[in-house]
Amino acid sequence: MKRLSKTLGLLSTAALLTVGVASAASLGIGTGQLSAGNAAVSGCTSSALTTTRNVNNSGNVTQVNVTGVPQACSGETLAVTLENSSHTSLGTATTTVGTCTGGCTVTLTGFGTVSATNLTAYALSLTQ
Fold this sequence. Notes:
Layout: H1 2-25, E1 50-55, E2 61-70, E3 77-83, E4 89-96, E5 103-108, E6 121-127
Antiparallel strand pairs: 1-2, 2-5, 3-4, 3-6
């Protein structure tokens, strides 16, 4: 019985290896380019950005100001997501960072109706 288990185990392993090799052999390699490696990815800033919010008389967020955005980020898209304590999105807005000197202040509006009492975090991203 023990010998039969070993034999079945070896046959199963051989079958799986054969299928894997056969699958790899069926990949076409003459028409496209495929490469692997790594590359350094750099952003326009390594410093922390600061956010403030403006609230209307109804207690809703009307705009978010992101300060300290370096001029190297000019032309990139800044996205701000307002989040609650569960990190669920309450509203998102995006804009293109304009040209400035020194540290820029970027103002975003259009979050919809977001109560300031529900806002506990900001998620920021800068993309080209």
